[in-house]
Specification:
The chain has 79 residues and is an all-alpha fold. It has one domain (12-78). It has helices spanning 12-23, 30-61, 68-78. Keywords: Toxin-antitoxin system.
Length: 79
């Protein structure tokens, strides 16, 4: 996969948080930490969209014995 070099600006508070994450040893660099955060956000966004589509389908069907919480839990269980 091709990489693109970026330059970003963060607040002092964000920098302190990033340095604390690096200090745990879970990440070797700022770049690795940011890529992991982006991947997690992409997954979360995808999961939210699946849940939204399931809720829309249930609502449009006009009949469902499942509550919105039941639908959300079923989608999460499939992951």
């Amino acid at each position: 996969m091709a990489m693109v070099k970026k330059s970003i600006t963060v607040t002092d508070q964000q920098e302190q948080w990033m340095q604390a994450q690096l200090a745990t040893g879970n990440y070797a660099s700022d770049s690795e930490l940011l890529r992991d955060l982006i991947r997690k956000e992409q997954m979360r966004t995808s999961e939210v969209e699946v849940i939204r589509q399931e809720l829309i389908k249930a609502e449009q069907s006009g009949f469902s014995r499942r509550s919105p919480d039941d639908i959300v839990n079923a989608v999460i269980a499939r992951k």
